[in-house]
Design brief:
The protein has about 110 residues and is an alpha/beta fold. The protein has three helices and five strands, in the order E-E-H-E-H-E-H-E. The chain is globular, with a radius of gyration of 12 Å.
Length: about 110
């Protein structure tokens, strides 16, 4: 698991990398939740451009991020999904409850 994040003008961007599966999902959940609680952003963008694979554990990561950002009245955006993660989100119906942007999201 590798995670990079930055905060700019109230927007927290979290770049995820590699594979998201049951081995790293809990660490991602805790790290993202901690950053949302620490920075209280109005928008949290999860950048998936470097995610090569994910299973249902990736859905858990997103659901937990959505819960955390919703608690503080913020918005969650998924950005730059590669084909495999995009298929997982669409087949699960997550694309109906989370904003998915094709490009890396800019304010």
């Amino acid at each position: 698991m590798q995670l990079t994040s930055f905060l700019q003008d109230g927007k927290l961007t979290v770049a995820l990398t590699g594979e998201i599966d049951h081995h790293c999902a809990k660490a991602y959940i805790q790290a993202i939740e901690g950053k949302i609680e620490a920075y209280t952003p109005h928008t949290c963008v999860l950048d998936f451009s470097e995610v090569t694979f994910m299973d249902s554990s990736g859905i858990a990561v997103v659901i937990n991020a959505l819960r955390s950002i919703t608690r503080i009245g913020g918005r969650l955006i998924l950005s730059a999904l590669n084909e495999q993660p995009k298929k997982v989100f669409k087949s699960s119906g997550m694309d109906k409850i989370v904003d998915i942007q094709e490009e890396i999201y800019e304010v």
